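Review form for a predicted model. The reviewer records the input and the model, then writes brief findings.
Reviewer: anonymous (R2)
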Amino acid sequence: MVVSTSQGRSRKRRMRIALSLGAAGVAAAVTAVVLTQVAGASPVLPEPTLAPPGLSTLGAGELERRVAGAVVGDTAAEPARGSAAGTPVTSAAAPWMAQLWYHDDRGTGAASDDVDLFCAGVVVAPTKILTAAQCVKGYNWYAYGAVVTGTDRLPTAGSGTAGLHGGTVSLPLRQYYDPAYISGIYADDIAVITLDAPVKAEPIRMATSTDPVAYAAGTAAEVYGWGRTASGGGHPASALRVATLRTRSDCATAGVCAQGAKPARCTGDTGGPLVVGGRVVGVVSGRPGECSGEFSGLRAHLGTVSARVDDANFSRDHRADVFSRRTDDRTGFFKTSKGSSFDPRDELGVWEAADLVVQTDLDRDGFQDLVWRRGSDGGVFWAHYDPFREVWSTKRIADDWSTRAHVVAPGDVTGDGLPDLVSVDEAGVLWIHPGHGDGTFAAPVKAGSGWKRYDFVVGHGDLTDDGRADLITRDATGHGVYLHQGTGKAGTDAFAPPVKVRTWKDYDALAAVGDVNGDSRADLLARGHDGTLWLYKGTGKASAEIFDTRVASAPDYEQYDLLG
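Model under review:
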């Protein structure tokens, strides 16, 4: 299969997943999957030609050159003089801090036309940096940027790797900023940069929208950064500092929230985190060159930010792709999303023994994982790609799940920032399997009963713009479609009572694969009895208007018996 690398070139690679497979069994209605019976199937070893776009071949030397150029060109990188606001803090206390360096020399020998920028950021997942939109809009971070993690000191220009003071430099792969952000206004000043490869820096969790403490007025909060010492100039702190302040109530609802009286941040802090109780509640904002107490509150942006933090897909862009298996020869395919339709399919090999396949990213490395079930014995496996060795590894994560009517990979159900699995057993009991972020799980938690009535239970991402994973079900008899809104809790209150949003009789398959059209909202795919695959784009509304008008995304889908 020919795929585009992150350098824009094409190369052909064949990857094999070494799996011990038995005969495919009788299919059951499961999440994101349409199943048919496989009669007399013999053991077949899937040999998917599955190779995601690989890591960049750009050397560390080029990234260090970008950092060095930005250090020299941006006045925020001058050595510290005097004392900066706040108190010093080490990487051990704030391992999730990141430095964003940008240097574009415009291809000329003169320095007068160079574009240089320094911002702070925070690691919220191994490949995700939360920062300010003003640090992203109008810049090409893939072409001219570099991100440094794992150090509390600013780089020393001209010293190569040694000048990073133990930090690691990474390549920004793609960027996103809140579409409501307007340059010069500084409301909705939120952005996410996706790195080409995961970093070792420990991520910090984002506060949930229902956290009673995180957004309460008067709560003690901490702001981190390398900001200048005064408005209109001055010099940065050469080492990381932290200042303590009190939040105001508008942090919970507004695009901009203010600390109030005493300025708490200056240029150089921009993009850094506002932290309450060990969780990010906002991002440092405000006008460049000024000191202020302005922050973009995260709560008002949790839906779009969470979608970008959890957006792994096969093509490594920001749109979810679809897996399918052809009925006649059991060949698996990935179709890459183009927004409202899909590119021609890429063959993945024979998936004869699987009776369930769903997409996820259990290890949060930014590369698409597959969770699949073997029909012969109900064994469930996690296939995950190692971008450094360019091979797939497979791990058995469950035994004898052949009687599970539904298995779903909706994302983070429990509110701990780590992806989970959900299953429904033969008695109709809903179980949550809390993930550890490495392909292992805590003991299952019972989350409710009565789910036997549904012939489809699907979910992948946030449908209601609150940053929490949701589920969609369909009643097997009345064909009513229901939203089960996630609460971010583990237990019988993990999902709110169902809300009827549709009645669908004309579909024989439902699949949830994430954000297909790239607008940071989860979508749904439905297959009609005539084989047409319809895309229902999410609107973010927790009501009957949860989906926009359907769009025909692909014909001839009656030829597939697995979708996910």
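Findings: The two ends are 20 Å apart (CA to CA).
Further findings: The CA atoms of residues 104 and 110 lie 12 Å apart.
Recommendation: see findings above.
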